[in-house]
């Protein structure tokens, strides 16, 4: 009978100590590869560490999911402070959809979360893109909700029909949203 050696809180490859960044990086890699974040035990196996080592950095799986989702959301397009608000929203939308397509389980993770960290990243970027329009709070919230619901619908359609939905198909619906937001539409 052989006894497996105990795994410690350091990755087997190299002498680099385990860190939050290493755990996040591996979780994001597995999400892109598998379409979902594996159990903490499977993540620990991929990192070649004891599963309990993850709890030193994340209180539970929900905390890990929020960190992964927020980290990925920070990769989406950062709008520039300029007057081409329509171009900025188009780039933000395409970037967001590309992220969701590259990480199929991400939308499901975000929709199941009780925290708002990842959503705050998108909202901050949308606020920057829409700043030239000067929407009041109520109109901004309505525009945010409409755009996000539309983008999530497109993301779900892409997941159901990979390769069958082109981002160029965003132009018509976005033009309709833009027409309702234009300063003279107030």
TrEMBL record:
DNA-binding region, residue intervals: 39-58
HTH tetR-type domain boundaries: 17-76
Pfam families hit by this protein: TetR_C_1, TetR_N
InterPro entries on file: Homeodomain-like_sf (IPR009057), HTH-type_TetR-like_transc_reg (IPR050109), HTH_TetR (IPR001647), Repressor_TetR_C (IPR004111), Tet_transcr_reg_TetR-rel_C_sf (IPR036271)
* Highest taxon of the lineage: Bacteria
| Record keyword Ubl conjugation present | no
Q: Keywords, A to Z?
A: DNA-binding, Transcription, Transcription regulation
Among PANTHER family, the record links this protein to: HTH-TYPE TRANSCRIPTIONAL REGULATOR BETI, HTH-TYPE TRANSCRIPTIONAL REGULATOR RUTR
Q: What is this protein called?
A: TetR/AcrR family transcriptional regulator
